[in-house]
């Protein structure tokens, strides 16, 4: 057992920041002396003294032998991995590295159609061929959940030469599929199970939270420590266990994807966040679960509102758990879209959600939230229901293009082929039945609705236009106004 009280990387950074010396190395602001005054006024100069480069005492992220190696070993033990890599380019580079390490050009990989755009980037970089599985879909709530063990079993029977399976666990709404069953099926074919666990880094620290991906049998998982724990934005981890993953390929892939000038502020924040959770994780998560339950109970009692609960998921196959620190509130009973409710709460009631969708608002309740935050959240929804309710509009009765229909795509080219193909930009009205050459996704949560290589269909175009008309933001594409799309020429 390692001493989880230690913070080797944080301690080394602190010592180097305090060491008197004349700096003739990057970064150019030289321990904060060259920082502009407005930025210094905002952040203070102390943070810039710690904004250091790969000095002798600070180790090397791509060939760690000192304090970074020690910090990563501590993290591996705390999170239940055999080896851990610190990521300064977010979980995005971790997902891309996982695909690059397991798939080459023409290799097949099974993954859900509601993957994050980073997985599509991984397909483009690797040249892998996606075998997409549609997730289970709730047409009443208009929410896509996880893919099921049966779907994975059928896909592997049809494509036994598949090189890897990638799962999103949990989904952006906190829904967890039957990862243990999927791992058992995947391992029968002796191929690795990769997990996008960006929103599940806290699972390892409380028994009332869903089972962590590694404990459920995943071979590799990527976690956004900054999303739900105490690291700085962009700071993530990649964990591996077992012998199905070539760790050298992971390291080499990360060298391609990560900056050669990694931020030690981000790296140290990972070291500190690991120590915090290793020592106090259960207590911190108990508090988060307690205030989340209070929010869930009180908001569900407000007329016109409902919250996503596990019993509703119980009728769907393959779903085992709901992360109770993730709160999804359905607002359509107020006659409002999620986008409208989000704008009112944010601009008039002082409550900001993680993201909005057509019928819902989703909130992340983490170790940084307080009972006062929960009180403001509940009061915000109370005011929303009382003062902004519309009796003449019921969102759920509008004619939506259901997400499960729009996911019925045909992949004509591999994402890599389409991305690098000669392309042209056409008015949206002229793109029906053309092959898409760019990623198009409503954001957040950054789940693509179109990707390079797929045939553009009328239902997809209508769905995107509906999202935009209701206040959603389209990202990833060249023209975010969605007047044009890039297609293969």
The strand line-up of the biggest sheet is 1-10-9-8-6-2-3
Poorly predicted runs of 5 or more residues: 394-407
Tell me the β content.
15-25%
Distance N to C terminus = 59 Å
Question: What's this entry about, in short?
Answer:
The protein is an alpha+beta fold.
Question: Can you walk through the features of this model?
Answer:
The strands form six sheets. The protein has a seven-stranded mixed sheet, with helices on both faces. Strands 11-13-15-14 form a four-stranded antiparallel sheet. The chain starts with 7 loop residues before the first helix and ends with a strand. The protein contains 17 helices and 19 strands. Strand 2 (about 110), helix 6 and strand 3 form a beta-alpha-beta unit. About 40% of the residues lie in helices and about 15% in strands. The chain has helices at about 10-20, 35-45, 45-50, 65-80, 90-100, 115-125, 150-160, 180-190, 225-230, 245-255, 265-300, 310-315, 340-350, 370-385, 405, 415-420, 460-470, and strands at about 85, 110, 130-135, 135-140, 145, 165-170, 175, 195, 220-225, 235-240, 305, 320, 325-330, 355, 360-365, 425, 440-445, 475, 485-489. Mean pLDDT is about 90; it is low at about 395-405. With about 500 residues, the chain is of the alpha+beta class.
